[in-house]
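User: quick one, fold this
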Amino acid sequence: MKKLSMIVITVGVLMAASSQAEAKGCLKGAAVGGVAGHVAHHHGVVGAAAGCAVGHHMANKKQKEADSKQQQNQN
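Assistant:
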């Protein structure tokens, strides 16, 4: 099980490094979700995937809010 976890983590890090522009929030969310999933009955990979999705969504939401504020300041 440890070997599978290390493979998944390694692949995730490599994918994140290759597409860093699209990974905003994903790494932080995956880390938190992975830990939470591991604590909740050893579902670290599922928690990491869900955390990545939530982190990415929150980063996009934050970026849209920042863009909106910037447009308001320009007008």
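User: anything notable?
Assistant: The chain has three helices and no strands.
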